[in-house]
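Retro notes
What went well: the complex prediction finally ran end to end.
Inputs used:
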Amino acid sequence: MQHFPMWQQCIDRLAQELPNDQLTMWIFPLQAEQVSDEQWLLWAPNRFAFDWVNQKLLEQIRIHAREISGQPELDVSLRIGEAGRSHTKSSTTPSTPPSTRPAPAAPRPTTPSPIEPEPVEPGDTADEGFSHNLNRGFTFETFVQGKSNQLACAASQQVAANAGASYNPLLIYGGVGLGKTHLMHAVGNQIIEQQGDRRVIYLHSERYVQEMITAIRNNNTEQFKNFYRGIDALLIDDIQFFATKPRSQEEFFHTFNALIEQGKQIVMTCDRYPKEIEGLEERLKSRFGWGLTVAVEPPDMETRVAILHSKAEQSGIDLDSDVAFFIARRIQANIRELEGALRRVIVTTQFSKRPITIESTKDALKDMISAHAKMITLDNIQRTVAKYYNVKIQELTGARRTRSIARPRQLAMALAKELTNHSLPEIGESFGGRDHTTVLHAVRKIEELREIDSKINDDYNLLRHTLNV
Amino acid sequence: MQQIPLALDLVTPTSFEGFIGNENLLLKATLAKQATGAGEAQVLIHGPAGAGKSHLAQAACYHAGSMGRPAAYWPLRQLGGQLAAASEQIEAFALAVIDDVDAVIGQAEGEFMLFDLINRAREAGVPLLLTASHPPTELPVKLADLASRLTWGAVMAVHLPGDGEKIELLRARAQARGLEMPHGTAQWMLGHLPRDVGTLLEVLDRLDRESMIAKRRLTIPFVREVLIEGE
């Protein structure tokens, strides 16, 4: 949108008085409208910008506007919204802050709303303005299944097909960026697709906490309670954020009970096995385990390759398998980083108009690959494992063979074999001059144990994660 | 009689064109496309202080604004605790720019606010541009949820311009002010001053004023006199 010339002059003058960052932050986003010779309207994109400009810059703007227009009485008013649209309400008096809305904010409209939406009252049964807050792109169709997540995916599909009837609550746990949130959205999307009128809500646990605090402050806790106890499916992300927040836990406990009693579905995610969350009440831990608890693990090589193919396809890119394997071999930490690497390859090759080959991919990712190679060293592995098991590095590399030392040592060796390019003799050498057959034995032992002992398997995965793989 | 210069600086708008360095062409093209709304969902640019990250961040906003797309520029060091309030409004924007991620790294509350903001941007489909001193995998982020989210989009380094490019920039900016900056003078400046573009341009401001007062050309002796002997 073009500014009218006098507003542009006004910006030019402000540019000489304000630092660049303030100009960018507060002045550029304003849209100006010349209503008449006597009146200009300035539209701030949101309340935050409105408050700031109103308090700190509006007088300065008025002075320039009046000088430039030659109208000493020029009325310069600030509003929230967008110029040139019909406005039903002046927003010069701020209404209740949006955080009091118990329903999460509606998905982004294609153009910003001209006024702040009216707060949706908690407990309001009318579905007008009810927002599921679901990402429509996160469906079961777009979820790439593999060995590491198939149980979680199957359970989620079950729940979506029989909401409230099977596996209630469903709790999905695992490290960051492994697809927990995607599965949860997929459940919500399918419930809505199959039973359109369901009140399904996705939200992050921290958002729940914030809304509760606001409700307490505004004296409408009853409405808050009624709202959450009146929905059909609650999808709540990252419940570990409830730790050490007793008041929120108390409230969530009651919401949880009310929903389960009514046969409403609850799906939760957590970054670790819930019983391990410190600062979470025992009664909540035990209730979380009433339904089904499933883990998602870091994706194996084949799944990472499949994910890359799927993401590339979504971007309309035909990705060669060699290239997918090349990226998947180097980026193992989580799916977000994998996606980031793919985006980097796409923008780089599109810009240089090169096809996506191993060579061009290597060029595009050279910073990322060197950063990874730099981080995973034998020292780093020993330090991380020692810290995790609370033993000394000298003990890991020393001669003692008691189990409390030998097991972490074997684990560290197995990690070194998997994560570095060092030869087995080199790995043996770094663990106090051990023979390469000892390393081989350790690697096999850990492989065996991971199959039968979930604690060892969890430890191994967590350590890989900590090492940023 | 001495001529007193007006106390105003010539403001050069923060644009992509004004950002130099041949190695930054990909970066600029990516950010320009993102600002139109047809590009990346998330980009993180990184580089040392003085590399011009804030300039690029502001240029992205300016670029979006020039197309009628409201952009939010949020420098974390100045915004502090207000980030939470700001991010509640993210849906109103067509681009959100978070300048200086480092400002919250290591602080539980700040890291959480940024984590929440990234989630909100994703949920609302608002493209996000972040700046940081290092690539995400090298930032000492405590909150694993944030660390993984910082790696979500394309991660790109801001390349520092070479001396030749800095000399060209100084001469071009001088010319825009009606000053002539001989090649030798620009070279002398690079040999004797901090070499980041920000400082060099600040010095150019000062030389502009001083040369007007003294009615002198930007010769090496004059510049030396102003900058070293005049201290």
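What we learned: The first helix of chain B runs from residue 25 to 36.
What to try next: split runs per interface for comparison.
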